[in-house]
Design goal:
The chain is of the alpha+beta class. It has six helices and seven strands; from the N terminus they run αααβαββαββαββ. The longest helix is centred in the first third of the chain and has 78 residues.
């Protein structure tokens, strides 16, 4: 704990120093620009004064020469103002871009640190449960019912590990080529039932409700679509009260197949709606453990299967995540 606090303080000081260096450099560049402008303007005034002193007042073209020098002086002043303004605008624009990139890099670094902590926790928990269950089975003679329950719980934890590994693999893969995605007709009724069975095994104390219209078929990658639905269900379980139900509805609308996962949690704040599908993003004040990958990976899967993923508020509270695919006929061989 002491070492962790020391590291946090060190990182905070390092960030502060980087920002201080940034503002120092920006201030120095602007000061140098102002000094350059003043120096050129002063030099130009000295040149104008010198040229006027060299003129002979009795010369017939004296006034014409004065006017010529004044016009040249005015032209130079406009030139310096124009060049100075252009440089100033470019410096400010560049400074804004660099500042935003700097903040983005710090944000990504912080998200990646949080991600590693979350992944470590997410990996250790099922491993610890699996190890404990196997040790119990190995060291004790148990009733058949207890033995089956422990085995089921162990299998559920391995499924959880597998899902997490799948998310991490998809995270680090480039966008898949269409030739690598195995699209096939999928009956959503059966697929959703499989996903719900997995979730009930993982969370036997939770209440899951479903309403699935029969005969809805989509054309997508079965494994990836299953992972996407499970990600949404996991998300709903994590961010809703234990006493609240998680609902899944599958309906058809305007030639589209809609998979709606509804929870009764706190919902998504309006200012975070456009961020929740970002990689590593976790909402402020979230108490549930997570990697910040689930929704990002889910959106990526849905897009690869030419679908859409949206979120809207549930009533009276919570969120509704909707996956939309084009519906096909069961005998469609696209």
């Amino acid at each position: 704990m002491l070492f962790s606090n020391f590291r946090k303080r060190f990182r905070k000081k390092r960030v502060t120093r980087i920002y201080a260096l940034y503002w120092f450099m920006l201030s120095y560049i602007i000061a140098a620009l102002i000094f350059w402008f003043i120096s050129l303007n002063t030099q130009n005034e000295e040149i104008v004064t010198f040229k006027k002193e060299q003129l002979v007042k009795e010369a017939p073209d004296y006034q014409a020469q004065i006017q010529k020098i004044d016009r040249e002086d005015k032209r130079k002043r406009f030139q310096y103002i124009g060049e100075g303004s252009t440089f100033f605008i470019l410096i400010i624009a560049g400074a804004v871009i660099v500042f935003r990139l700097l903040r983005a890099q710090f944000r990504i670094a912080r998200q990646q640190r949080d991600f590693m902590v979350a992944v470590t926790h997410e990996l250790k928990t099922p491993i610890a449960v699996t190890k404990l269950n196997l040790e119990t089975l190995q060291k004790r003679t148990l009733d058949e019912s207890v033995r089956k329950r422990l085995l089921s719980a162990t299998l559920a934890e391995t499924d959880r590990l597998n899902a997490l590994c799948s998310n991490m693999l998809l995270l680090n893969e480039p966008e898949k080529d269409d030739s690598l995605i195995v699209r096939e007709p999928i009956a959503l009724e059966g697929l959703v039932e499989e996903c719900l069975s997995e979730q009930k095994l993982h969370y036997p104390q939770r209440l899951f409700e479903s309403r699935v219209e029969e005969g809805i078929v989509i054309y997508a990658d079965r494994m990836l679509t299953r992972l996407a639905i499970n990600n949404l269900l996991n998300n709903a379980v994590k961010y809703s009260p234990k006493s609240a139900a998680v609902s899944v509805n599958v309906i058809r609308k305007d030639g589209r197949a809609l998979i709606r996962v509804m929870d009764e949690g706190e919902g998504v704040p309006s200012e975070e709606v456009h961020k929740i599908f970002d990689k590593y993003f976790r909402g402020k004040g979230m108490q549930a453990k997570g990697t910040g990958l689930g929704l990002y990976v889910t959106q990526r899967i849905v897009h690869q299967s030419k679908g859409t993923l949206t979120v809207e508020p549930n009533h009276p509270k919570g969120s509704i995540f909707t996956i939309s695919f084009a519906e096909i006929k069961s005998n469609d061989g696209r």
